[in-house]
Amino acid sequence: MIFKLRPYLFALKRCGIFYLLILILTGCGQVPSVKETRILMDTFCEISCYGDSKDKSIAAIGAAFKEMERIEKVFSKFNKNSEVSNINRLAGLEKVAASEEVFKLTEKSVYYSRISDGAFDITVAPLMEIWGFVRRHKSIPDKETIENALEGVGYKNIELDPKKLSVKFLNKKTKIDFGGIAKGYAVDRAKDVLVSRGIKNGLVNLGGNIFALGSAPGNKAWKIGVEDPRNKGKLLRSFELTNRAISTSGNYERFFEIGGKRYSHIINPLTGEPCQGIISVTVAADSAEQADGLSTAIFVMGEEKGLNLAKSIKGIKVLILKEDGKIISYP
Question: Residue 187 is inside which H or E element, if any?
């Protein structure tokens, strides 16, 4: 993943999203700006702040990164000491006490599973493992292996006790993976830190999960462009956002090819196989968590069912790019 700089254009190429900073040259020099990029959650994270004090912006960005690093330690499936790893080890055997943060995001994840009829599902972890997306060696599992993994997949295998804040899996093969929502959640928390530090205008971008805080200097909103992954430099559509988020899920982010066929990391938890037919889904919503979860859900559901879901949720915007070249925009 590479950041490239053009006049007034910062591009996050592989995510398919970039934001256009349409700045007035006579005015942008009067607005102190601070931007920092780090690697978090296995992707690039960039935080930009625009305000009246560089020192305040630097401190706010540092605090926002610290919060995102904390969240990564909690939700990482690769860190054997993370809370999620502990739940995956024990919840198939007994009830496991969870922090309020993990419990609430698990509850929210189950909500997205319900409204998408299981298309979004954090219990997809066993399938991610057999397809090799949690290790370097990718492989195509046989039918028996997929069916065996599917036994542990399904959000109804998660039993939550809100009084005790406990999590239990009803199937010993069940494991959870917050990869389809944790980045959006982290972006929201980073935005909250910026706001608490007095930042009114800025961007938090974690691997294409973006929250646009306030507006771009000299403009009424941030202009976010969605790039056509088939035609670099060409826009599919742009979104004007103020205090809103946007996220893109695509089959060009993480994949492998065998025999000329592409296998995406976005796996249908109902069939156990990588999704086909769609290249990318972009969702603009009130929160990065919502945009992240819904972009994954709609990608898995496909055009017809995905649009029906979108129409049932107030205030979101959706852009779908299909493998046949068809572009669907809602509303």
Answer: helix 182-196
| Alpha carbon distance 99, 96 (integer Å) | 10
Can you tell me the distance from the alpha carbon of 152 to that of 298, in angstroms, rounded to the nearest whole number?
A: 22
**Residue 104 burial (CB < 10 Å; 0-12/13-18/19+)?**
middle
CB 131 within 8 A of CB 313: no
176 touches 106 (CB < 8 A): yes
Q: What is the largest CA-CA distance in the chain?
A: 65
pTM of the model: 0.89
* Distant-in-sequence, close-in-space partners of 1: CB < 8 Å, separation ≥ 6: 12, 13, 14, 15, 43, 44, 207
Question: What percentage of residues in the chain have a pLDDT greater than 70?
Answer: 86
Q: Which domains are delineated in the chain?
A: 91-176 (1.10.3980.10)
Residue count of the chain: 331
pLDDT tens, residue by residue, 175-194:
999 999 999 999 999 999 99
Neighbouring C-beta atoms of residue 277, cutoff 10 Å: 11
* β-sheet bridge partners, residue 38: 45
d(CA 248, CA 256): 19
